[in-house]
Automatic annotation (TrEMBL):
One of its GO terms (biological process) is signal transduction. Residues 453-462 have a biased composition (Polar residues). Residues 1-41, 439-473 are annotated as: Disordered. Coiled coil: none annotated. Residues 17-27 have a biased composition (Basic residues). This is Serine/threonine protein phosphatase 2A regulatory subunit. It comes from Anas platyrhynchos platyrhynchos. Pfam families: B56. GO terms for molecular function: protein phosphatase activator activity. Gene3D superfamilies: Leucine-rich Repeat Variant. GO terms for cellular component: cytosol; nucleus; protein phosphatase type 2A complex. Residues 28-40 have a biased composition (Low complexity). Belongs to the phosphatase 2A regulatory subunit B56 family.
Length: 473
């Protein structure tokens, strides 16, 4: 039981949080309780496989696999030291044995191999030490038994990648229940384990055709629970990375279930609080779908616009980056379908008081392909963007943004000078409508305002001034 919380800590939540963080830093390792109540097992070293005759090797191989099923408590750093070292050396020997020898993975060994792997890696993951765990700021709790578990994963991969490996035999042991347990391990806080799991699951997906639909369905379920229930799962980025490869291999035309997964799972995942941890992998999956089927572009962009962040500038920057990735692969015919709602949102982003959001939106005009799409559709896009751009050029607090806006205005003016002038005149005419100040001074109506022609000249002179400034640099 922890010590009583002081009165100051009860009043000040920040104090308690700092205390918890200090405690987490002191204990950076954790482990599930592998072994039963107080059972003491002492291992004895077996003969080396390389020293055994060919007739003895298979039996000795299975004995070593059975020996490695015995588990030890690594939270106690001084217990079973000799046995732990014997097991570590045996695991190393097994990894080398299956990597360098042919004909050693025979049918009779599959049961012992899968049993050894399952005994070591399948476990109930310990609860996080920190209920307020923030993967972006806090250090993860590392698996204390990693010296053994790492070697088991190494052995598992060598087993799956061996030329002797036969999926037709292995499927008796590597079944849906096995895969389900494997997927649950992706919630491990230890990034080293998740990295191994990613490779293992990818190999299983490639070799076991009968498990592919099940794997996709279970990943779908994990993501749905993550979005709508738990809002926490450590292995989202790794699972998305696997999905990126899976999507890349989808046959055309795409099945309805794959399209549904995109719209009902991947797009809503953009609302997650920890989006920054897996956004790169998520955006890659979305773009992979659009490269497979361009007709999905419109519903995807409309879905992103629906979930567009309202209060988180960091997320807005990520959304803008993903939109640019989508526009890089969009077909001109699909662009026409979404240009109006999309550029209305981009116009809002350009007007953002957060300079990183405005800057990221203005960088679209540095993309040659996007520029070509804008130029082809300038008659629709310029009227949407003009008001925001012109207002920012006069009022934005950040000089870098103002300079970028002048460059964008200059580019748009070069695309269609006549439309640019018409919009300038219309914009100034609206600003010249009678106001209270003018009504109070009828003898000098509008004397404090410039004429439309003067405003237009002022606008063009600003652009020319920017051009001269750039040349003088």
């Amino acid at each position: 039981m922890s010590a009583a919380i002081s009165a100051a800590e009860k009043v000040d939540g920040f104090t308690r949080k700092s205390v918890r963080k200090a405690q987490r830093q002191r204990r950076s390792q954790g482990s599930s309780q592998f072994r039963g109540h107080g059972s003491q097992v002492e291992l004895s070293p077996l003969p080396q496989l390389k020293d055994a005759t060919s007739n003895e090797q298979q039996d000795l191989f299975c004995q070593k696999l059975q020996q490695c099923c015995i588990l030890f408590d690594f939270m106690d750093s001084v217990s079973d030291l000799k046995s732990k070292e014997i097991k570590r050396a045996t695991l190393n020997e097994l990894v080398e044995y299956v990597s360098t020898n042919r004909g050693v993975i025979v049918e009779s060994a599959y049961a012992d191999i899968v049993k050894m792997i399952s005994s070591n890696i399948f476990r109930t993951l310990p609860p996080s030490d920190n209920p307020d765990f923030d993967p972006e700021e806090d250090e993860p709790t590392l698996e204390a038994s990693w010296p053994h578990i790492q070697l088991v994963y190494e052995f598992f991969l060598r087993f799956l990648e061996s030329p002797d490996f036969q999926p037709s035999i292995a499927k008796r042991y590597i079944d849906q229940r096995f895969v389900q347990q494997l997927l649950e391990l992706f919630d491990s806080e230890d990034p080293r384990e998740r990295d191994f799991l990613k490779t293992v699951l990818h190999r299983i997906y490639g070799k076991f055709l009968g498990l592919r639909a099940f794997i996709r369905k279970q990943i779908n379920n994990i993501f749905l629970r993550f979005i709508y229930e738990t809002e926490h799962f450590n292995g989202v980025a790794e699972l998305l990375e696997i999905l990126g490869s899976i999507i890349n291999g989808f046959a055309l035309p795409l099945k309805a279930e794959h399209k549904q997964f995109l719209m009902k799972v991947l797009i809503p995942m953009h609302t997650a609080k920890g989006l920054a941890l897996f956004h790169a992998q998520l955006a890659y999956c979305v773009v992979q779908f659009l490269e497979k089927d361009t007709t999905l572009t419109e519903p995807v962009i409309r879905g992103l616009l629906k979930f567009w962040p309202k209060t988180c500038s960091q997320k807005e920057v990520m959304f803008l980056g993903e939109i640019e990735e989508i526009l890089d692969v969009i077909e001109p015919t699909q662009f026409k379908k979404i240009e109006e709602p999309l550029f209305k949102q981009i116009s809002k982003c350009v007007s953002s008081s957060h300079f990183q959001v405005a800057e990221r939106a203005l960088y679209f005009w540095n993309n040659e392909y996007i520029l070509s799409l804008i130029e082809e559709n300038i008659d629709k896009i310029l009227p949407i963007m003009f008001g925001s751009l012109y207002k920012i050029s006069k009022e934005h607090w950040n000089p870098t943004i103002v300079a970028l806006v002048y460059n964008v205005l200059k580019t748009l003016m070069e695309m269609n000078g006549k439309l640019f002038d018409d919009l300038t005149n219309s914009y100034k005419a609206e600003r010249q409508s009678p106001c209270n100040y003018c009504s109070a001074r009828p003898s000098q109506p509008y004397s404090h305002k410039k004429t439309a022609q003067q405003e237009t000249t002022s606008s063009h002179s600003c652009l020319q001034a920017v051009g001269r400034a750039e040349k003088s640099k």
